[in-house]
């Protein structure tokens, strides 16, 4: 056994010492050695069997062979597991002694110490049993280790993989992300992570992590094919939703049917098809080529767009009754041409340029979808794909059908809009007659409807000669912006004219009588109005003006000197309280001065100062136009300068200018 100094040093290093006499099958252990072997320390010899019982059964033969084989070298090193703790390893180093005359082994002496191998053992077991593919490559790009999962995923047994060249066994890994990143990791010593697809026989997407080691590369990779599929499907769903939203926005931005539909082709290509043609039926809905027009088209390839445009110019004349487009329009079914589309479309076209063009455009598949409105077919969308793209199917087909349905309703709305707008304007203009020819007054009138049909409503004007001589000028506005407001406006205009022509023409009295009539005939109606009478006085053409205002924007006077006077006196609106006491004002106007009556549509803007700001703009514009000689040019300039391109409200305007007396 070692001396006291050696024992102390060994204890500090975690080592224990032992000596065995094999002839008598006993051995001696110091306290540290006994503790490492899990044996209570004793001062005397122990049977060798006591120590052997502490060693794992699988390691006992190996250990015995190792000691016996050390006769020639005189020393040995070994590792063994403890019987009760197979994850706990002990290392030993020692020398053997033998009988000089016979050379037989007689004894062993050495040291033991713990071997930190537990984590490695666990790691090996974990790597082997991992559900993740793991393999190691040496620096010659040969497999040095593969776990069970790697055998399964790589499709080869371990015996075939080990020591096999990865580039020979998996040649598709060359010249792509696998080779690029593996070589980068090996040369740089830095780990890499990447996603890559490996074709048949693996046919899968993988997330790969390669870590350089002293021996080569350790590679983990995970099959992410399903995750990739879900991700791509999510992206496709998002793109389809974005496409549908874009189409909806595009259709909502205009009520012009042709503009809305023509924009569809560019929106659908290339998201759903390589190229597209949008067709409209005429308003009568007749399904015949002469009543059909290709209104929009687009191709993903700029070089092919002139061909598509030319095709749309010729195909209607070439269409036969059994064409796919005609079939969709007649049946409202989605008609699909899944393959050989160019030849099959040629067969339903009359010989000529259209046949040549469809051959040159070479669609492999096509889909025709109806554009349906409320109970009627309005047109169709035809989507074409080339040989490099599969036919429209699945979720993409459903998206195309949804878009066609939305487009059909948008078309129907556009047609209804045009119809309603026409009815509304016709109704409105039927009440707004041209003013009479007057000897002493120049009169000009203007009416501009709102841009939206639903907002054509209650603005009106009237100019007529009273039987007793004065000219009566009226302007008014019924609250509301719809056909009901327009109809109510017609009632009020007729009632006021009837009252005026049968009574004394006094503005305040006329408004009072109209207010009472509203209460009796049209309760709930609220309106504003200005009634003005103009009567010649004196030899120079001067005119006496009487006027009364029921809550209407104030008339303005542009006098001969270019000054603008606002006639701001007003009373309560019509339809609020019939017993309202109404007042009127009187003043004289000289020839060359202009009276202006208007509705709020000329001046009021929600986003630009409201009514007050509009009145300021009107006054400034009138001053700027003070040299304008005619009432018609004056009205035209006011409309052009003050109205937006798409008015939100309808507008009525009356300009009256006394005429100088001849002589």
Automatic annotation (TrEMBL):
<protein>
    <submittedName>
        <fullName>PAS domain S-box-containing protein</fullName>
    </submittedName>
</protein>
<dbReference type="GO" id="GO:0016791">
    <property type="term" value="F:phosphatase activity"/>
</dbReference>
<dbReference type="Pfam" id="PF07228">
    <property type="entry name" value="SpoIIE"/>
</dbReference>
<dbReference type="Pfam" id="PF08448">
    <property type="entry name" value="PAS_4"/>
</dbReference>
<dbReference type="Pfam" id="PF01590">
    <property type="entry name" value="GAF"/>
</dbReference>
<dbReference type="InterPro" id="IPR035965">
    <property type="entry name" value="PAS-like_dom_sf"/>
</dbReference>
<dbReference type="InterPro" id="IPR000014">
    <property type="entry name" value="PAS"/>
</dbReference>
<dbReference type="InterPro" id="IPR001932">
    <property type="entry name" value="PPM-type_phosphatase-like_dom"/>
</dbReference>
<dbReference type="InterPro" id="IPR052016">
    <property type="entry name" value="Bact_Sigma-Reg"/>
</dbReference>
<keyword id="KW-0378">Hydrolase</keyword>
<feature type="domain" description="PAS">
    <location>
        <begin position="119"/>
        <end position="189"/>
    </location>
</feature>
<dbReference type="InterPro" id="IPR029016">
    <property type="entry name" value="GAF-like_dom_sf"/>
</dbReference>
<dbReference type="InterPro" id="IPR003018">
    <property type="entry name" value="GAF"/>
</dbReference>
<dbReference type="InterPro" id="IPR036457">
    <property type="entry name" value="PPM-type-like_dom_sf"/>
</dbReference>
<dbReference type="InterPro" id="IPR013656">
    <property type="entry name" value="PAS_4"/>
</dbReference>
